[in-house]
Write a sequence for this structure.
């Protein structure tokens, strides 16, 4: 083995071939053959590989070969060739593959969850959400394919004589760039919609969680997907991300707002579409008529699921004056009762953060707030005794605009509490800042909560739930307003973004020009009369 140097993925880069079975220093958490079988699916010829280590206990998980820009080009060529036949495959056949994927994901759930926990460190109950959501997405798009992608009839300009159809043709090959926080789910859900729409996919999952994404690719192939249709490349976004944007027919990005902005610029230059699912600083509102127990229980899940490393999790909670103290007592007590652990079993409420970088950001946000006068009601410190990247679930009070965590996304288990007197003020404060991803409103009056929801400038609003109600309702669009993104995943928008919409009009009997010896002036009169008639009979 030759020289090693640190990488963003946490482990060292190995120059030249790597032989995990004969590495005397490694105690692998996964069978080396298991990881190898997954990474063989990568298009990666650089000769370099990155060692990935588990945030649970820092044990090495495997070596991920790295792709070059030329590998990205190869991946696109292969996917493009495979897409030609796939684009002509009937919707029913594509649906059948997705329904098989649904079953395979449920059958392999334990294997999937184990791998997610090893790679991301999250608690098993939060890893469980990933295969669940992938299965839901596969079933939804399989069952709605005809509704969203079938040829539609539209009104023709001349009733009975102009027949208009709209086709939703595949764009070609979609580039999917995904982050580490939901490594199985976010590597697959957008791609499932892209495949359903008849596209090929080149996926670039985050370097830290490549194995979970590769397990998804294997399950797709087992479900019957033509192998070359779904390509996976590995490497730092800054090195190979540009090559994806340069070749894709559409880019689907999930990650930070800063990277999303750079990707949108690249797509604008090529005049291709993109969807951007970005960060948030999500608000939860507890109205004065909220059910206190439900709100406190929901606030815990809202703030600390996946250790807060969740784009739709809550980092700001606004509570009505009348019940502020009672809510805080309950919220603090429930948070203190959370169990932290670095194991694969179901017992833990929260696992570690994924990396030293995440721990540094979370620590810096809390230290900055405390130094400037914020109060820690619970948590507030790292727990190296439990594992390398643990940080306690933390509730802050007295957070003010001069503190970093007031407006910047922490992306960790840190939430700030604010008191409000009137609801209009709470809505204005919830809407402050540049993000607009997800919000939550707790109230026993559903109609009132939904009215407030319309005033919140967020792409999703959950009433009496944190995020799961919208996120799991795949028929509804999901995405961000303002700097939280552009475009929507899920629902009709989530699949039609991967299509080129084409209108085909067939004209019969008459043409759009004077005929039967008519003058231009007479033709204009007939057309005007026709317009007046159509309005009179109520035509759109
Ligand atoms: P990131 O933007 O650093 O990385 C995300 C992905 O982009 C990774 O695969 C990375 O390799 C790649 N990338 C990085 N630089 C690139 C470049 N120049 N060109 C192309 N690709 C590049 O994001 P992160 O910090 O790892 O992820 C956390 C962020 O993701 C948070 O802000 C979170 O809110 C957001 N997120 C949003 C959603 C959503 O659905 N809205 C879901 C999950 C995470």
């Amino acid at each position: 083995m030759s020289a090693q140097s640190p990488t963003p993925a946490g482990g060292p880069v190995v120059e030249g071939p790597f032989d995990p079975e004969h590495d005397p220093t490694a105690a692998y958490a996964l069978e080396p053959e298991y990881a190898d079988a997954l990474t063989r699916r990568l298009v990666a010829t650089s000769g370099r590989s990155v060692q990935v280590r588990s945030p649970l206990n820092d044990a090495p998980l495997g070596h991920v070969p790295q792709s070059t820009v030329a590998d990205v080009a190869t991946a696109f060529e292969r996917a493009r060739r495979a897409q030609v036949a796939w684009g002509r495959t009937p919707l029913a056949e594509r649906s059948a593959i997705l329904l098989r994927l649904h079953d395979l994901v449920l059958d392999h759930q334990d294997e999937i969850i184990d791998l997610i926990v090893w790679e991301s460190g999250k608690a098993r109950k939060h890893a469980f959400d990933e295969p669940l959501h992938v299965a839901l997405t596969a079933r939804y798009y399989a069952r709605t394919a005809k509704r969203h992608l079938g040829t539609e009839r539209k009104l023709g300009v001349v009733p009975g004589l102009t027949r208009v159809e709209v086709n939703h043709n595949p764009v070609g090959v979609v580039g999917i760039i995904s982050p580490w926080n939901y490594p199985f789910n976010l590597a697959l859900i957008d791609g499932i919609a892209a495949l359903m729409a008849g596209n090929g996919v080149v996926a670039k999952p985050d370097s830290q969680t490549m194995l979970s994404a590769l397990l998804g690719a294997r399950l797709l192939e087992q479900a019957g997907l033509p192998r070359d249709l779904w390509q996976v490349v590995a490497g730092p976004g800054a090195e190979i991300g540009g090559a994806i944007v340069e070749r894709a027919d559409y880019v689907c990005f999930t990650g930070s707002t800063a990277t999303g902005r750079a990707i949108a610029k690249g797509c604008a230059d090529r005049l291709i579409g993109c969807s951007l699912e970005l960060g948030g600083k999500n608000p939860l509102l507890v109205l004065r008529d909220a059910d206190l127990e439900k709100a406190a229980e929901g606030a815990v899940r809202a703030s600390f699921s996946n250790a807060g490393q969740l784009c739709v999790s809550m980092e700001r909670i606004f509570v009505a004056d009348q019940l502020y103290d009672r809510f805080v007592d309950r919220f603090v007590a429930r948070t203190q009762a959370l169990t932290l652990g670095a194991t694969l079993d179901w017992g833990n409420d929260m696992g570690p953060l994924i990396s030293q970088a995440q721990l540094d950001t979370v620590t810096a946000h809390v230290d900055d707030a405390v130094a400037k006068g914020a109060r820690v009601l619970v948590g507030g410190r790292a727990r190296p005794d439990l594992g390398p990247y643990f940080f306690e679930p933390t509730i802050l009070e007295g957070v003010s605009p001069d503190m970093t965590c007031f407006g910047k996304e922490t992306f960790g288990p840190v939430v700030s509490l604010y008191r409000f007197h009137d609801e209009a003020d709470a809505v204005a404060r919830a809407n402050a800042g540049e993000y607009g991803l997800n919000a939550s409103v707790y109230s026993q009056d559903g109609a009132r909560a939904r009215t407030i929801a319309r005033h919140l400038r967020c792409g999703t609003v959950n009433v009496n739930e944190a995020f799961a109600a919208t996120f799991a309702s795949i028929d509804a669009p999901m995405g961000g307003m303002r700097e939280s993104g552009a475009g929507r995943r899920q629902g009709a928008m989530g699949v039609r973004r991967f299509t080129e919409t084409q209108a085909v009009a067939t004209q019969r009997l008459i043409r759009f020009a004077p005929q039967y010896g008519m003058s231009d002036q007479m033709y204009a009169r007939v057309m005007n009369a026709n317009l007046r008639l159509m309005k009179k009979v109520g035509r759109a």
Q: What stands out?
A: Residues 177-181, 186, 204, 206, 237-238, 241, 254-256, 259, 262-263, 277-280, 311, 409, 411, 437, 480, 485 surround nicotinamide-adenine-dinucleotide (CB under 6 Å). DSSP finds 20 helices and 20 strands in the chain. The CA atoms of residues 157 and 163 lie 9 Å apart.
